[in-house]
Amino acid sequence: MTSSSPGPKITLRRATADDAVPAADVLLRSRAAALPTVAWPRSDDEVRDYFRNVVVPYRETWVAEASSAGGVVGVMVLAGDEVSQLYLLPDWRGHGIGDLCIAFAKESSPGRLTLWTFQVNKPAHRFYERHGFVAVEYTDGSGNEEREPDVRYVWQP
After folding, report:
1. pTM (2 decimals)?
2. At CB < 8 A and 24+ separation, what contacts does 92-100 make?
């Protein structure tokens, strides 16, 4: 899938083994910028190993590349009707990459999508709500490994 908006050409494609570390680095840089107060239970190297050994080989992992960036600028992981991960490099937010990813996810699961995000991530709330997602559940974080209060969103056409 390729963007048709003005600006850099963005391509969304299935991740390969060579994308595992760059995709993990997108997640790490995005989390550091967007969620500095969240305590992460895994080291950066553990995250890279997890992407290399589990996420890319065994999960439906997609990467976004920008023609002008020379590499991966976004990563999305789908699990059935769930967007289990969506991260963009901080400098690439606002360029339509998230919009492209969500449009693709909706095409892949046209009846319903769900996702979780942390309650402190207000920009993510605004992004998902702009795309028609509705908050349906708030938790105290006891069900996630970060122990961070989160919110579940659902989209249905």
Report:
1. 0.91
2. 92/66, 95/7, 95/8, 95/10, 95/66, 96/3, 96/5, 96/7, 96/10, 97/3, 97/10, 97/64, 97/66, 97/73, 98/74, 98/127, 99/131, 100/1, 100/3, 100/10, 100/12, 100/64
